[in-house]
UniProtKB/TrEMBL annotation:
The keyword Ligase does not apply. Belongs to the CobT family. This is Nicotinate-nucleotide--dimethylbenzimidazole phosphoribosyltransferase. It comes from Ciceribacter sichuanensis. Pathway: Nucleoside biosynthesis; alpha-ribazole biosynthesis; alpha-ribazole from 5,6-dimethylbenzimidazole: step 1/2. The gene is cobT.
Length: 338
């Protein structure tokens, strides 16, 4: 990445200078784990998750203020008929979130998770990516900055989600630009695209990547040209979480596309992140494999709105509770292995 004197410069610096894990906290957590009343490794990935929490929070594993952050944006590419739902559904679903009527509301209530919804200029869709950039560099950088500020107020586990009619088309275009292949490999049904609608979706992704092909060697350029406001905001939130020692759970295909852009800019950019679930969107597993991650859940979901990450937060909370609440061999009077 090169410094250009343009709005992305601050983010380029952040991406170069990301803080690493807290090794002292990790060592302390590993030492306690060896003393807990269980055989070593008996809790499998729960033990790994507890160590991850320690490394990226800098303290004993705990989840006290989990937050689901949903970023909502609209997209100019929907004018090509690439989804069976109108863009007005984005605003309607934001209102449904606020009223407590969506799936994410029920999951947050079940697992005692905080929920914040961010409306990203829904009355002003991004540019049509088949023939123009989605955003200017200034607007994209400002939206990333908004995403960074969105987690102000304190959290110790961030679940990233989104809402936006047409944004699986955006995610497919980003993945095609980053990893190559064919549009058919990355395009899935999204909200139920099939037949002629699915064909138009594939055509739109091909047209977008072809139109911007001379500018796809820089992940931040890919973000502004092919992305959307929710993509930029999620990327900003993931970055801010890294700077503030907040572990992150990433939701489905669209949220993973935002994360993939950061990893393309710095291979270590997602070390503080886990993938909450693998969605039913066909390109998501392939994307997760490119990131070198293993999802916590595989439930065939493809709803978005942070639902998979929120469900995974329950597992993370359980991992922290096991680590902190279990007795040690000494305190319980249980004989350890010889």
């Amino acid at each position: 990445m090169t410094v250009t004197g343009l709005p992305f410069d601050d983010f380029r610096v952040l991406l170069r200078e990301l803080p690493g894990p807290d090794t002292a906290a990790l060592v302390a957590a590993r030492d306690r784990d060896r003393q807990l009343t269980k055989p070593p490794g008996a809790l499998g990935r729960l033990e790994e998750i507890a160590m991850w929490l320690a490394a990226w929070t800098g303290r004993s594993p705990a989840v006290n203020r989990p937050l689901v952050a949903i970023f909502a944006g609209n997209h100019g590419v929907t004018k090509h008929g690439i989804t069976p739902y109108p863009s007005s559904v984005t605003q309607q679903m934001v209102e449904n979130f606020a009223a407590g009527g969506a799936a994410i509301n029920q999951i947050c209530a079940t697992y005692d998770l905080g929920l914040k919804i961010f409306d990203l200029a829904l009355d002003y869709p991004t540019g049509d990516i088949t023939c123009e950039p989605a955003l200017s560099e200034r607007d994209c950088a400002a939206t990333m900055a908004f995403g960074m500020e969105a987690i102000a107020g304190g959290t110790d586990l961030l679940c990233i989600g989104e809402m936006g009619i047409g944004n699986t088309t955006i995610a497919a275009a980003i993945h095609l630009a980053l990893y190559g292949g064919t549009a058919e490999e990355w395009v899935g049904p999204g909200t139920g695209s099939e037949g002629e609608v699915l064909r138009r979706k594939i055509e739109a992704v091909n047209a977008a990547v072809e139109f911007h092909k001379d500018h796809l060697d820089d992940p931040l350029e890919i973000m502004r040209r092919l992305g959307g406001r929710e993509i930029a905001a999620m990327a900003g939130a993931i970055l801010a979480a890294r700077m503030q020692k907040i572990p992150v759970l990433i939701d489905g295909y669209v949220a993973t596309s935002a994360a993939a852009l950061l990893k393309a800019a710095n291979p270590s950019a997602l070390d503080h992140c886990l993938i909450g679930h693998v969605s039913g969107e066909p390109g998501h597993l392939k994307s997760i494999e490119k990131l070198g991650k293993t999802p916590l859940l595989a439930l065939g979901m493809r709803l978005g709105e942070g639902t998979g990450a929120a469900l995974a937060a329950g597992i993370v909370k359980a991992a922290a509770a096991c680590h902190s609440g279990m007795a040690t061999f000494a305190s319980a009077g249980v004989s350890n292995k010889e």
